Amino acid sequence: MRLSREVALVTGAAGGIGRAVATCFAREGAEVIVSDIDEAGSASTLEEIEKAGGKGTVISADVMREEDVVSLYRRAVERYGRIDIVVNIAGGDCEPASDVEQIDYVKMSANIDLNLKSCMLSCREAARVMKPQGSGRIVNMSSLVYRGSPNQFSYSASKGGIYAFTRSLAMSLGRFGITVNALAPALVEVPAFIRALGEERWEMLRKDCSQRYPLGRVATPDDVARCALFLASDDAAFITGQILEISGGARL
Ligand SMILES: NC(=O)c1ccc[n+]([C@@H]2O[C@H](COP(=O)([O-])OP(=O)(O)OC[C@H]3O[C@@H](n4cnc5c(N)ncnc54)[C@H](O)[C@@H]3O)[C@@H](O)[C@H]2O)c1
User: Fold this and answer.
1) Which runs of consecutive H residues, i.e. helices, occur in the chain?
2) Pairing with 56, which of 81, 201, 237, 249 sits 20 to 30 Å away (CA)?
3) Is 155 known to be catalytic?
4) Checking DSSP bridges between strand 85-88 and strand 136-141, what pairing results, if any?
């Protein structure tokens, strides 16, 4: 087991990728703090963990609310006494494709709040716990669109911001034994996507991407979970400030 007796906090753990990460970490021996705004979804993730013989607990939080994030970390430390790993996955695109002239202030702000500011807040709280420990692993969820994406202005900016923030944090926290890295997946097949687009449009998107990606398919949540595991494990002890593209070779 690669995360034996580690305490791992995963935000967005009710979602497609978050659930895969939470269950993967639990299978590897971590005690997982399952956090999401979706309480029923979090309960299902915990059920899956426990069915597989793993251990965890649910602490719900809305990562867009500062008081929720502060309370999430306070409750986690009250329960476990420490946090070894944080994976910031909660997020999503609040402003799907638009022309630049049509950028909507409210949706644009929502993208920055949900993806970038939530990640910064969570990392601030993680640093407060991990610095005194003298160790920690932080993995942030960016996206391949951090490189830029036509007509996806605020989402790509928020994910690019996560990369810049991750590098800044890695520079500041390295001497405290804390690594900070980011994941940048291309299209990942998750139930939320299929629900939002409908089967037919999803299938068109999946086919289009599969033809364009050199490896000939889109990613699974498990592809992403295994990369998160690598960055959270001792195998990545000397890696920090990096972004790992999980892209099947897209946009090389
Ligand atoms: N699916 C993809 O193709 C893809 C590609 C690259 C990056 N990502 C990123 O991966 C992450 C997970 O996405 P997913 O594909 O699993 O989608 P998803 O919608 O299944 O998961 C997102 C999770 O975040 C939670 N969430 C949303 N707002 C929240 C809030 N305010 N507080 C707490 N939790 C909140 C949702 O309840 C959900 O469980 C996101 O950050 C997304 O931007 C996804």
Assistant:
1) 16-27, 39-51, 66-80, 105-111, 118-133, 153-173, 191-197, 199-212, 221-232
2) 237
3) yes
4) parallel
The one-letter code for the residue type at 154 is: S
Atom of ligand 1 nearest to the CA of 185: 6
> For the chain, which domains are there?
7-190+220-244 (3.40.50.720)
| Residue 97 confidence (pLDDT) | 83
Q: How many A from CA of 175 to the centre of ligand 1?
A: 31
Q: Which two tokens stand for residue 152?
A: 């996806």
pTM of the prediction?
Answer: 0.99
What digits encode the pLDDT tens for the residues 176-196? 999 999 999 999 999 999 999
Looking at the predicted structure, is the pLDDT value of residue 230 above 90? yes
Active-site residue (options: 73, 155, 163, 213): 155
